Amino acid sequence: MKKNEKQIRHLRWFGIPKLLPYLKPYAKSFLVMVIFDILFGALDTLTPLFQSFAINNFILPGTLAGLPRFIILYAVTLAAQVTVNYISFYYSMKIEMRINHDLKR
Fold it and tell me: In sequence order, what are the residues at sequence separation of 6 or more whose Cβ sits closer than 8 angstroms to the Cβ of residue 26?
């Protein structure tokens, strides 16, 4: 393999495979982070669905019937989104700081 090909191959993965041994002690935290990232992605897809529901059921017909229930459900979904996002970022920062500490040692 030529030197250029080897450099290009390393650029493709941005050196992440070299960091995997340092990530191993934090595998559980990493798994929690990934699960919450996936959950956040699922919750994030609900936002356009809520918006289209509001347009189709409240704005176009010009009615407010069922609006309080919709607002409560939307607020709960947003609160869940914020909570899941916070937990995901918390674990990602925790892992980052600990790996940086390990690398400095």
Answer: 94, 95, 98, 99
Question: Contact at 8 Å (CB) between 101 and 25?
Answer: no
CA angle, corner 16, sides to 15 and 17, nearest 5? Answer: 95
Helices and strands (H and E) in the chain: how many: 5, 0
Q: Which long-range contacts does 74-82 make (Cβ < 8 Å, 24+ apart)?
A: 74/50, 77/43, 77/46, 77/50, 80/43, 81/40, 81/43, 81/44
Q: How many CB atoms lie within 10 A of CB 43?
A: 17
C-alpha distance across the termini of the chain, in Å: 34
pLDDT digits (tens, 9 = 90+) for 23-65: 899 999 999 999 999 999 999 999 999 999 999 999 999 988 9
62: alpha, beta or left? (left if phi > 0; alpha if psi -120 to 50): left
